[in-house]
Amino acid sequence: MMDANTGIIIAHKNMHQRMEPASLTKLMTLYLTSQAIKQGQITLNDKVHISKSAWQTGGSRMFIQEGSDVSVQDLINGVIVASGNDACVALSQFVGGNEATFVDMMNQTAQQLNMVSTHYMDSTGLPNAQHYTTPYDIALLTRALITNFPQDYVWYKQKWITYNNIKQPNRNRLLWRDNSVDGLKTGHTEEAGYCLVASAERDGTRLISIVMGAPTDAARADDSEALLNWGFRFYHSHKLYDAKQALANPRVWLGANKTVPVGLSQPFYVTIPAGNYSQLQPQININTSLKAPIQAGQTVGMLTVKLNNAVINEAPIVALTDNPRGGLFARAWDHVMMVF
Length: 340
Fold this sequence. Notes:
- This protein has 340 residues and is α+β, with helices and mostly antiparallel strands.
- Helix content is 29%, strand content 26%.
- It folds into 2 domains: 2-235, DD-peptidase/beta-lactamase superfamily (Beta-lactamase); 242-339, Sandwich (Peptidoglycan synthesis regulatory factor (PBP3), Domain 2).
- It contains 9 helices and 16 strands.
- Helix 1 (26-38) packs parallel to helix 4 and helix 1 (26-38) packs parallel to helix 6.
- It is globular and about 75 Å long.
- The relative contact order is 0.13.
């Protein structure tokens, strides 16, 4: 189980064990689809012409028809709710040009996300000994999906899809029995067992649970629910600092301005055992000899937060504004002051 805000693992068992992911594979297909939308390469309203190879894909289906034109949004819904292999292949062909190229994109993205124990052979997750991942890698992917595409995350809590006059339910049982759960994806093959990636948010804390290889549909839901309830009971997430919040205004030598505001480029969270907030030890360390020119975003120090003298999170401190070199007189004066 991972805390979504910090990426910290708060509970695990066999998290680095290589396993077949079944339809959890589709989280990467959806990640690349969201990325293409964000980059302006495709839109939700684009129509995808359904190929014969997409239409005839086996396994769970959305029931799209060969030769029809289906919107990207409908295909996304079909992948998330119905776990449609046909919709998944159609998206992979549209985003990647063909599925082989798309699979290359999947593997490249896995490496970029540090999913070092993952290898994809297709966009759907059909059984293949060379198609594998680990629970930890799936957690990394899920956190990246939630963090990088927050505007798309609402898709993952849909309970039903109706397409081609066929109504299908989301197989994620937790959506039906826990209002705090709002995603993400189920998977099942004989080889992979029953799998479920779930996420929930309560009181500002968001957790991600990964269950793979469960013996039954009910077991994967029960295990996921137990993990989430345990995590929310014993761990809390706290936002200590906002992005762009000025933490200090250190002296800058040779600059147009004598100081520069510094802070963090992203919100800063810690996830800690309940009841330990008062024991946090934040430490702000800033370079004491900053010299212009300084550019916004330039690293000038480090924020470290400890609990019981153990580092629990850290982040670089950056300049929040530019500070160019000062005029000749100002620089000359600073040179004198630096000597003394």
